[in-house]
Hints:
CATH superfamily: HIT-like
Number of domains: 1
Number of strands: 5
CATH architecture: 2-Layer Sandwich
Radius of gyration: 14 Å
CATH topology: HIT family, subunit A
Bound molecules: adenosine monophosphate, zinc ion
Strand order of the largest sheet: 1-2-3-5-4
Strand content: 15-25%
Structural class: alpha+beta
Amino acid sequence: MTDCLFCRIVAGDIPSETVHETETTVAFKDINPAAPLHVLVVPRRHIDDAAAVAPEDGPVLADMLVAARAVAEAAGVAGPDRGYRLIFNVGPDAMNSVPHLHLHVLGGEPLKGHFAAA
Ligand code: AMP
Ligand code: ZN
């Protein structure tokens, strides 16, 4: 999808600060970070959002979680005494703004509350 921002980032048409790549996923720094660590993990293949995920997307979802752990490990927050938060926003009430599935990886400091971004 050439008009999709994250498809264009995956294709390299729009620059991003990529921190991790696999055959099926790309992880890059969020342009407007809500925490010291704020990375977006996206599938290379376009999926609209978490509500559009189908059972056959299971493997790429697992790849995204494994990529998120690798991002957290590289940032030094994956140990048992640290941790990180993973968020999928769906729809306007959750303020989903980019219509290409992305997993927010947040951390690097004790996050405020159980459910907020930071
Ligand atoms: P969401 O609100 O869940 O749809 O998250 C979209 C995220 O994409 C926001 O946190 C934005 O800051 C981030 N974002 C938007 N444009 C870019 C970009 N060009 N590079 C990196 N992150 C971006
Ligand atoms: Zn896309």
